[in-house]
Amino acid sequence: MIATIKILWNSLKMAVLELRVNKLRTFLSLLGITIGIFCIIAVLTATNSLERNVRSEVETLGSDVVYVQKWPWDGGPDFPWWKYVNRPLPKFQELVPIKEKVQSAGLSAFAFSSSAKRVEYKDGYMEGTELFAVSGDYEKIQALKFLSGRFFAGKENENGANVAILGANIWEGLFGTSDKAMGKTIAVAGRPVRVIGTLKKKGASLVDGINYDNCVIVPYVFGRTIVDERRFADPFILVKAAPGATLLQLKDELRGVMRSIRRLRPKEEDDFSLNEITAVSGDLNKVFGMVNMGGWLIACFALIVGGFGIANIMFVTVKERTNIIGLKKAIGARKKVILMEFLLESMILCMMGGLLGLLLVFLTTVAVNSLHFFEFTLTLNNIILGLTVSSVVGIIAGFIPAYLASKLDPVVAIRSN
Fold first, then answer.
1. What is the mean pLDDT of residues 101-117?
2. Three-state DSSP class for 286?
3. Confidence of residue 4 (pLDDT cuts 50, 70, 90)
4. What angle in degrees, to the nearest 10, is found between the helix axes of 277-320 and 322-330?
5. If pLDDT is split at 50, 70 and 90, which confidence band does 91 have?
6. Which of 202-213 are b and which e, b meaning 16 or more Cβ less than 10 Å from the residue's Cβ?
7. Which of 11, 99, 174, 313 sees the fewest Cβ atoms within 10 Å?
8. What are phi and psi of 164, to 5 degrees?
9. Dist. CA 204–CA 211, nearest whole Å
10. What's the rounded Cα separation, in Å, for the pair 245 and 276?
11. Where in this chain does the record put each MacB-like periplasmic core domain (predicted)?
12. Interhelix angle for 277-320 vs 23-61, to 10°?
């Protein structure tokens, strides 16, 4: 046993020495493995990170929330937009019967957004910001992450006070820090508002498309004095299921109440859409699965090419070391020791390629995270997967050369040139 370990240790040192001596040959052989591992782990890391961010947003937005809107979310190249273009927009007045009649509804709120607004403070200004007007229970349904300040109080909502909550891009652009923004009076579309809260930087939502970083959030009653939501905005109603109520139950009740409000006849189609976050996240999961499959297909071709390169190196290595193999077998080295020696060298080659591929993925994650688009994380599971795939490719690529080496006749091997 000890002799076998010594032989393997010496073989390992010889393998490392061969890699150092034949740098160009080693590099060209590792290139295929590096590209293959990079493709697999980069795609898996990207899809895993996207899925983790989407699921986190679903939890934040609420998997038990239904959005009453004019347009459905199930778009696509064959989307029949002509069926929905003449639908009426949701109205703030529809919120009252929803609260009174939908028994499975816990909380409900009204909101609308309007783009391309100018925000000013003294000599500074920002163009193209989003005005986001919400009613009182919005913050209880969609938890906003405050850096400082608070949400609107009851009277501020009811009376339409001219107060606002600023997204990260806005308070950074106008004030530099959130503390300096608190209590200041700014102008939104020419109307003065007092800042009572600032939000943490979040980035654009991957699910509902709302970018709070670029929003000025105001009470709905005040917001409608700036923008007529029926003509220049995209209003919607949010309804959160009550504790113990299912999403299906909520949608059934909500559909009945909305049809009653709109006075639709039994044979008439709904003139509203009931959208839910879980449907969108389910579609995204299918997309992630297809992207993963594409990454594996690309990686398989690269790994096959890399595997042939490793096998070629191992055939050359066996040819170069035929004399040494003969001497080892003459002094008692068994076939399995010779086999393990070359398999070990092949695995080292492939694992080096795998480590280079993982290093490239890590550098990619650093570059993506610096853009603050979303959190891109190389997980331990993906690192282990990359090294495992590298090892398996090394064993497969090196098995035939290693097997031929183990079967050499010691006398013939020693005599070979």
1. 91
2. helix
3. low
4. 80
5. very high
6. beeebbbebbbb
7. 99
8. -150, 155
9. 4
10. 15
11. 26-255
12. 170
How far apart CA 405 and CA 311 sit, in angstroms, is 13
Place of tokens 């240790």: 9
CA distance linking residue 279 with residue 277, whole number of Å: 5
How many helices and strands in the chain, by DSSP H and E?
Answer: 15, 10
Tell me whether residue 32 is exposed, middle or buried, using C-beta atoms within 10 angstroms of its C-beta: 0 to 12, 13 to 18, 19 or more. buried
- Provide CB contacts within 8 A for 276, sequence distance 6+: 63, 65, 66, 67, 247, 251
CA distances from 109 to 185, 310, 417 (A): 27, 62, 86
CB–CB of 108/99 below 8 Å? yes
- The torsion angles phi and psi of 268, rounded to 5 degrees, stand at -80, 145
Instruction: Please state, in angstroms and rounded to a whole number, the distance separating the CA atoms of residues 164 and 56.
Output: 26
Instruction: Summarize pLDDT for 258-275 with one digit per residue, the tens.
Output: 999 999 998 899 999 998
pLDDT of residue 336: 77
Give the pair of three-digit tokens for residue 408: 């050499």
pLDDT digits (tens, 9 = 90+) for 391-411: 888 888 888 888 888 888 777
DSSP 372-402: TSS-----HHHHHHHHHHHHHHHHHHHHHHH
Q: Range with the lowest mean pLDDT among 1-5, 136-140, 329-333? A: 1-5
CB 258 within 8 A of CB 68: yes
What is the amino acid identity at position 327?
Answer: L
As given in the structure block, the two tokens for residue 79 are: 């989307």
CB 53 within 8 A of CB 374: yes
pTM value is: 0.67
Domains of the chain, residue spans? 2-57+282-415, 88-271
Do residues 193 and 162 lie in contact, with contact meaning Cβ atoms separated by under 8 Å?
Answer: yes
